[in-house]
Amino acid sequence: MKLNELLTYLHEHEIDTKENPMITSIEMDSREIKKGSLFICINGYTVDGHDYARKAQESGAVAILAERPLDDLQIPVVLVKDSKRAMAVLADIYYGQPTHNMHLIGVTGTNGKTTTTHIIEKILNVANKKTGLIGTMYIKIADELKHVKNTTPESLTLQKTFHDMREKEVTHAIMEVSSHALHIGRIHGCDFNVAVFTNLTQDHLDYHKTMESYKYAKGLLFAQLGNRFDHEDVKIAVLNADEEASEEFIKMTAAKILTYGIETCADVMAKKINMTSKGTEFDLVTPVGTKKVTINMVGKFSIYNVLASVSACLASSIDIDTIIQAIEAMEGVRGRFELVDGGQDFTVIVDYAHTPDSLENVLQTIKQFAEGKIFCVVGCGGDRDKTKRPLMAKIATEYSDEPIFTSDNPRSEDPSMILQDMEAGVSGEHYHLISNREKAIHFAIEHAKKGDVILIAGKGHETYQIIGNETFDFDDKEIALKAINNRYY
Ligand SMILES: CC(=O)N[C@H]1[C@@H](OP(=O)(O)OP(=O)(O)OC[C@H]2O[C@@H](n3ccc(=O)[nH]c3=O)[C@H](O)[C@@H]2O)O[C@H](CO)[C@@H](O)[C@@H]1O[C@H](C)C(=O)N[C@@H](C)C(=O)N[C@H](CCC(=O)O)C(=O)O
Ligand SMILES: Nc1ncnc2c1ncn2[C@@H]1O[C@H](COP(=O)(O)OP(=O)(O)OP(=O)(O)O)[C@@H](O)[C@H]1O
Ligand SMILES: N[C@H](CCC[C@H](N)C(=O)O)C(=O)O
Ligand SMILES: [Mg+2]
């Protein structure tokens, strides 16, 4: 596409030349520049992309889009007020508006996004739909996986991903939509058909500062959902009726509403719930009838994720029998309440609970079936919301018999300072302090007795640990299996 053609889509811009090069790729990272690229300068949180414009030119960029004039460049410079916004517009156009002709489901909320997107994916696959998935664990196009840094990538990566999905004939895409992405505008240009809300509890206050602005960011997904009545293309907001924030999101959206819940009357509900340590049975009540279902996942939070997924799929015109077949076959998601079986006579669970609410939910669930003591190996991430640390420590001591405070991903912070923040939440309670995560896991496994349950929380599927600037191989499940092996064999 020629530069001038691309620029017709930007309402306000200035350009310093009449040159009109052919653009063969759009990049926001100078390290990705190829011959023919348009380089977009983004002023980031750590560095300013404008400082890399020269490097981009040297690497073959044929044009630059920037927020301020740049000296000593021989290629056209397009000036805009906000390069991130311009990037979203250009990415959408350059990649052929890929979300306009695919069914796009977005899932937002503090906890349960990854799990819910995977349940939706399973249902759509059982319904023979070709799917793409974007989220914390990976970008998945059919069976092909690509690892990513962010849960919800920047608009450029997003639109390119949707374009690749279209090339692979994906008809249904499901994505996790983080509050950061909503706040920064990474999803501008995404034409969602269905938007799903899981829940809102404390996290990310380092970024959003208050729960009110965190809620506002989540609400943007619903506010931006097809704000006109196109009766050929109805947009649907799937909201958790048991969550207070849903009442506000209802006011924020013009879309059709479908609610789900357990406590409050809703369109889709779970009734007569019967939980065991292996699974859950309940009556699934929907606008198209009531059926008894048995799922392999445990915990009330899992029922919420299933109800959200069922609602999203009903909103996507999938028939109820297919939905039920899929949710009954769903085995769970990697690193989410995942059982580690090394032949031991106690239970070991690896879970991604890294917020106060998720930790409380998971421990409450374990309490319902634990025959012996509960061990809880838990830490808190560095360079993240500090105020959740004492809360998580308190919850660990409240719901477990042997809490073991350890490191998560300390990142740039001193691990002992993070532990101090956790300890500030407890006074007089019994707990262990083992900063080295591998040693903490070994400690729990060496001390567990028959019937006990060990929860290893916070890192779930992660196969690394970030300490300082370095990333080390680290897999909770692998380490737990090694410790079980050491103890028994
Ligand atoms: C705070 C934040 O959101 N940061 C994101 C941001 O990074 P940044 O602003 O620091 O970028 P930067 O390094 O300053 O670079 C600025 C610009 O210079 C460019 N650059 C940089 C170096 C170079 O050599 N050449 C070059 O061109 C960069 O490509 C970029 O365009 O832009 C990057 C590229 O898109 C993101 O990967 C990065 O996410 C970081 C990794 C992050 O940790 N983000 C978290 C807070 C986040 O967004 N989390 C949410 C929610 C998670 C959840 O709850 O599930 C998520 O969606 O992931
Ligand atoms: N609906 C839910 N309500 C509360 N807690 C949940 C719910 N679903 C899952 N959890 C807990 O939260 C953890 C993370 O779940 P999941 O990865 O699905 O959430 P997420 O929203 O994608 O998280 P992230 O923002 O880190 O990507 C799980 O391991 C479990 O402990
Ligand atoms: N999406 C979350 C994941 C946290 C996972 C936990 N292991 C940590 O590193 O804090 C975040 O980036 O805040
Ligand atoms: Mg996630």
UniProtKB/TrEMBL annotation:
Chain positions recorded as UDP-N-acetyl-alpha-D-muramoyl-L-alanyl-D-glutamate binding sites: S30, N150, T151, T152, S178, R186
Ranges of residues in domain Mur ligase central: 107-312
Domain of life from the UniProt record: Bacteria
Documented EC number(s): 6.3.2.13
Residues that, per the record, bind meso-2,6-diaminopimelate: R384, D408, N409, P410, R411, G458, E462
Needed cofactors: Mg(2+)
Domain Mur ligase N-terminal catalytic: 23-70
Cross-referenced Gene3D superfamilies: Mur ligase, C-terminal domain (3.90.190.20), Mur-like, catalytic domain (3.40.1190.10), MurE/MurF, N-terminal domain (3.40.1390.10)
GO MF annotation, one: UDP-N-acetylmuramoylalanyl-D-glutamate-2,6-diaminopimelate ligase activity
Cellular localisation: Cytoplasm
Chain location of the short sequence motif Meso-diaminopimelate recognition motif per the record: 408-411
Post-translational changes noted in the entry: Carboxylation is probably crucial for Mg(2+) binding and, consequently, for the gamma-phosphate positioning of ATP.
Pathway(s) where this gene product acts: Cell wall biogenesis; peptidoglycan biosynthesis
Pfam families (UniProt xref): Mur_ligase (PF01225), Mur_ligase_C (PF02875), Mur_ligase_M (PF08245)
Record PTM N6-carboxylysine, positions in chain: K218
Keyword list, A-Z: ATP-binding, Cell cycle, Cell division, Cell shape, Cell wall biogenesis/degradation, Cytoplasm, Ligase, Magnesium, Nucleotide-binding, Peptidoglycan synthesis
Domain Mur ligase C-terminal: 335-460
Coiled coil: none
Catalytic activity: UDP-N-acetyl-alpha-D-muramoyl-L-alanyl-D-glutamate + meso-2,6-diaminopimelate + ATP = UDP-N-acetyl-alpha-D-muramoyl-L-alanyl-gamma-D-glutamyl-meso-2,6-diaminopimelate + ADP + phosphate + H(+)
Residues noted as binding ATP in the record, renumbered to the chain: G109, T110, N111, G112, K113, T114, T115
Xref: InterPro entries: Folylpolyglutamate_synth_CS, Mur-like_cat_sf, Mur_ligase_C, Mur_ligase_C_dom_sf, Mur_ligase_cen, Mur_ligase_N, MurE/MurF_N, UDP-N-AcMur-Glu-dNH2Pim_ligase
Family: Belongs to the MurCDEF family. MurE subfamily.
Functional note: Catalyzes the addition of meso-diaminopimelic acid to the nucleotide precursor UDP-N-acetylmuramoyl-L-alanyl-D-glutamate (UMAG) in the biosynthesis of bacterial cell-wall peptidoglycan.
HAMAP family referenced in this protein's UniProt entry, alphabetically: MurE
Protein name: UDP-N-acetylmuramoyl-L-alanyl-D-glutamate--2,6-diaminopimelate ligase
Provenance organism: Metabacillus bambusae
